[in-house]
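Ticket opened by: R.M.
Priority: normal
Category: complex prediction / small molecule

The reporter submitted a protein together with adenosine monophosphate and asked that the result be attached to this ticket for the collaborator who will pick it up next week. Submitted input follows.
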Amino acid sequence: MAEMRTACEEARDAGRTVGLVPTMGFFHAGHRSLMRAAREASDFVVVTVFVNPTQFGPTEDLGAYPRDPDGDAAVARAEGVDVLFAPPVEEMYPEPGHTTVHVDGLTARLCGASRPSHFDGVATVVAKLFSIAGPCRAYFGRKDAQQLAVVTRMAVDLNLPVTVIGCPLVREADGLAMSSRNAYLEPDEREAATALSRALRQIAAEIVVGERDAAVVRKVALDTIASERLLTLDYAEVVDATSLEPLARLAGTVLVALAATVGRTRLIDNATFLFEGGADVIADLGVTASGPGSSRPESSGADACSGDS
Ligand code: AMP
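Result attached by the on-call engineer:
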């Protein structure tokens, strides 16, 4: 940990900018896209791999979470990462902490409703990583849209010297949102899992022809997920992308967020729709990885990484 802090300080002392990519490892093209975004915009890229115990509930998959330290190191090398920081649990938590970062409001709904302590674990470990890295740009995927909103708000509220950058969600060719947890899926579950992205594409099609009623949009998602017998719905919500408050009508920046379980695997997916000037719609359904480790933007604009700088 001291070495990582020193490496970041030395980079800044030499006039270099630092890009930070926090992850839980088992890299796929989604992680690689963040490393590339960091590499493009920063002089010194730090990727962290830490399966953070405090963000897993007592009945969740902490023990089973997929890990591949050697594979991750090879990916990081291939992506030109300067430092791969993969601390053991004892280094991050030498003793039980007395301090928890809780981002109020944003964490109560969506995934927070079924994972009540999850975002406290996330916010606390990300605050620790930001503290160790120091002033930097930190890259997060829009795959975890609620996490991105929570971390962004935390950095602002606590005046942390970190610019949080949100980057496009990367999908498999058939639309499934990439996730380390997809490794758990049996073939029939993998097939059923595509219902989430299918629902988002149907919603996009409805919106493009003028649908603005959040209840109608929600029903498209509910019906599509219900039609897959292997899927059990957790939530389908239409919310403001920043406040995560539910919307009745679609306006501004709208997040359609879905969560369901298939077998023992929890899946999340989402799309962002921008309504500009009342008429325009820009759908951010993510980008599709076109080969091992590469990603191809489907469109410009909403697909780009966006931060507050
Ligand atoms: P994880 O290792 O799953 O905790 O994810 C680490 C970072 O990668 C987070 O910022 C995630 O949002 C991001 N990420 C995970 N999956 C994807 C994906 N399919 N597309 C884009 N970013 C992703």
